[in-house]
């Protein structure tokens, strides 16, 4: 028993010593990036899938739990693969050119995005739309910072909020099929289901009656 414990401690010391070696830093960063991508993807997707599944999807408890597990696995796997690919390509480019330049990041992420997120499915679609909204905000701020557009005299956020909500509700009312399915479900719950009730039970307590009355 003591020999086994000593061997484990020796192995642990060797692993910790390896992690401190600068020559392996790039390769180890790729591995940790894979780990962090998997963990972060699961943390983000599991609660979202849990809420959306139990709010809007029908089926047995087993089917709902299976759907949650599949969505969580897909998000976790894709993010892990992307981080692994991105950091690996970044390290390879930096090694080949002898230094890191901004274009390396763009090219590595483009290749990773094509390979990992190129499949048009609900999980990837949600991730891309999440990123797109933040890219637009980021590019707008960068344009002001670099002087490409003048600094607004007033906060433009109220106007942006008005245009976003005006556009999305117009699309929902007249071109619903253009919106992403989960957004359609959310808006149907908020704006269409609130138009229908039969008595106090499905007016205040439930959204829809489950009986045949």
UniProtKB/TrEMBL annotation:
InterPro entries attached to this UniProt entry: Pmp4
Extent of the signal sequence: none
One Gene Ontology CC term in the entry: peroxisomal membrane
A Pfam family matched in the record: Tim17
UniProt protein name: PXMP4 protein
Source organism: Platysteira castanea
Gene: Pxmp4
